[in-house]
Amino acid sequence: MSLKRIGEQQWYRTAAKSDGITLIDEPWIKPFYRCNIWHVQGSKRGMIVDFGLGAVPLRQQVALLSERDLLAVASHTHFDHIGAAHEFGCCHVHAAEAEILASPDNTRTLADQFLSDDMFEALPAKPYSHARYRITAPQQVCPLADGEILDLGNRQWEVIHTPGHSPGGIALWETATQTLISGDLIYDGPLIEDLWHSDLTDYAASMRRLRKLPVRTVHGGHFSSFSGQHLTQLIDDWLRQHNL
């Protein structure tokens, strides 16, 4: 049975979180595959972290993103996180994956491996099709380095390089609110650690690095947000299970 089609205006939804952070997501994609898109409001400019599948224009359908000066950041370059990155002009990504973002093919971004009806509860409106899915490269790719500070005016977010899930994975850390945007290294669900460029040794080192932070709230790349206490538990369980 073919999946039903959903109009563009119904494709995205938003949910306000604490500390001026809003979750944007695609409810018609199943939870395991559904990317969390994070918008952070600052006094000088806003920031968007990750961009979803890109099958439906993101900026056009989410009023929150109409602000002209938005800092655009990709936590890594898998297709479910960078589909709409090209809508934001200059897109920031860790230097280790800048070349993938600048030339995003369906193999390296994993679209060939995962994109199918299995991902969806319903599909975007026609003419969308899996066979024609391609990611458009952003006009400009701006490489990020570990320790770099992303300045939103009244808010500063530190870039933490967290390789493991992928070589250029990053998390973003705001000391003032003890908030971590963790990308796909860790979230409250089944983690993916066996991709073509995953590395378990790097994964363990990144986990240990995040465990040292005094985290209050975690906003992951998938599934629901959770507490710093739960983060510690998840990391400890992961290290124990992997004997690392």
UniProtKB/TrEMBL annotation:
SUPFAM superfamilies: Metallo-hydrolase/oxidoreductase
Gene Ontology terms: biological process: antibiotic catabolic process
GO molecular function: hydrolase activity
UniProt keyword terms in alphabetical order: Hydrolase
Leader peptide range in chain numbering: none
Keyword Hydrolase tagged: yes
Similarity annotation: Belongs to the metallo-beta-lactamase superfamily. Class-B beta-lactamase family.
Record-given protein name: MBL fold metallo-hydrolase
